[in-house]
Write a structure and sequence with these properties.
This protein has four helices and no strands. With about 120 residues, the protein is an all-alpha fold. The termini are close together.
Length: about 120
C-alpha cells in the first residue's frame, strides 16, 4: 500500500471530478448556486475528502468506513446531478459525461475497498 494519498487512483479521479463540478457550478446564478450548486459541490468534494481521511487512519477498518461514506457521497452526487439536469442547469451531454465519470469512480472505489487490508 502506498504512503501517499496522491498515489491512489480513485482519489485522483474524484479530485478531477470535483474540480469539473466546481467549474460548472461557479457559472450559475445566485439562486442555483445557493440551492443545488452548494449541495452538488459539497457531495462531490466529500468523495475525495472521505477517501483521504480514511487513508490517514491507522486501522484498515476505519479506512474502509470512510470509503463507505465516500460511496454514499457518490450516490448523493448522482442525485444532485439529476436535479441539476432536470432543472436545466446542466445539459444532457454534460450530465452523461459526469455520470460516466462517477460510475468509474464508484467502480474503482469498490475495488479499493476490497484491496484495503488484503495486504498484510
Amino acid at each position: 500500500m502506498s504512503n501517499r494519498i496522491e498515489d491512489i487512483e480513485v482519489y485522483n479521479l474524484s479530485e478531477v471530478f470535483a474540480g469539473k463540478v466546481w467549474e460548472i457550478t461557479s457559472t450559475w446564478d445566485f439562486f442555483a448556486k445557493d440551492t443545488i450548486g452548494k449541495q452538488l459541490v459539497r457531495s462531490s468534494d466529500s468523495i475525495s475528502a472521505n477517501i483521504a481521511e480514511g487513508f490517514g487512519r491507522y486501522h484498515f477498518k476505519e479506512n474502509k468506513n470512510f470509503c463507505y461514506y465516500s460511496r454514499g457521497s457518490i450516490i448523493e452526487t448522482k442525485t444532485w446531478l439529476y436535479k441539476a439536469t432536470s432543472r436545466k442547469l446542466i445539459d444532457n451531454e454534460t450530465y452523461q459525461s459526469l455520470l460516466q465519470q462517477l460510475e468509474t469512480i464508484h467502480l474503482k472505489l469498490n475495488i479499493y475497498i476490497k484491496f484495503i487490508g488484503s495486504i498484510k
